[in-house]
Structures are given as structure tokens and as C-alpha cells.
Amino acid sequence: MINLITLIFILSAYLFGALNGAILLCKAKGWPDPRAAGSKNPGATNMLRLHAAQAASTVLIFDLLKGTIPVYLAYFWGYSPIMIGVIGIAACLGHIFPPYFQFKGGKAVATGLGTLLPLGMDLTGLLILTWLFTIAVSGYASLAAIVAAIAAPFFVQQINPEYTISVCMLSLLILLRHIGNIRRILSGKEKKIVNWKQ
Predict the structure, then answer these.
(1) Cα–Cα distance between 169 and 65 in angstroms, integer?
(2) Which one, out of 4, 30, 45, 51, has a CA that is 20 to 30 A from the CA of 155?
(3) Which residue blocks in 101-197 are alpha helix, DSSP H?
């Protein structure tokens, strides 16, 4: 059974994850809502499309920390791998369905990566390399996120196997959020973040 303190922890992770970096930065700068321009996804990739690299980097770091901090705290307080996974997913669900912003959020790629940072820099490095390699080959940021999500359980199985089930749950969540992107990639309608033919 989940006790009251754990439920409060999960809810806090959700509410913390709901603080969307892209939306907050755009509000602070007086820029248009990122959900209404570009890819309409309030995340670092769309901020790179719409604004300077500095803005995208700020959002990336903010969204990473939303996942990292709750998971680090859960690990420090001795929660089981499965419960740590639940807390990480709660942070990601906050990013996806933020109550502060009409429950219209992003795809939780950066926040999801942030939840994996406490599992080790070797896992993080492999995922980042996978993401960068896919970007270099395809030019699609969405495909890079999809491939990294698929690869994550295989990587963690070799590095930290006790977290495999938790990472599988997280990967499934990321993949479900990218169903529309998968359809657009297959139909040739997905926009590239890098176009090497130009």
C-alpha cells in the first residue's frame, strides 16, 4: 500500500513537473505562447525553432531539473526502483498535462531524460549519443526522441537492471506522446530540425 507521505511526494512531483519552462519563459519575455507557433510543442526543440539557442538551452536545463530533482530525492529517501519510476513518471505527466496551463503541455522528452540522470552518467551519455546520432542521420528531433526511448530499456538493462521496468514505463509514455510524430514521419510530413540538403 502507498502511504500518505508517498502520495504527497507523487503529487508534488506532478505539480513540480507541470512548471513548463518554455511557457514560463515566453510569458516572462512577452513572446507568443509556444503552443501556438512552430511545432506547437512547449519544449526546448520548438524554442530553438522560434527563438535563440540561449532560450532553448534555458528551457532544456529547466525541464531536465524537473525530472532530476524528484528522482534524486526519491532515491535519497530510499524508495524502491518501482516507486522511483512512478515518481519520475508523475513529473513527466505534470509536464504533459500541466494544471497551470489548461492541461496542455509538452512531450516530456527532456523531463524524461532528467529522471534518468540519477541512474548514472553512463546511461545518460549513451542516450544523448543515441539522440545526437539519430539527429545527424535523419534530421528529425522527434525520431531521435523515439529511438532514444526505445533504446533506453536496453541500455538500463545492462547498466542498472533493477530499474528496467521503471524505464520501460517511462519509454512507453514517451512513445505514446509521439504517435502523431510517427504518423507524420511515415507520411513524409514531419518537419526536420536539421536539413542537410539545404
Answers:
(1) 20
(2) 45
(3) 109-116, 121-138, 141-159, 164-177, 179-187
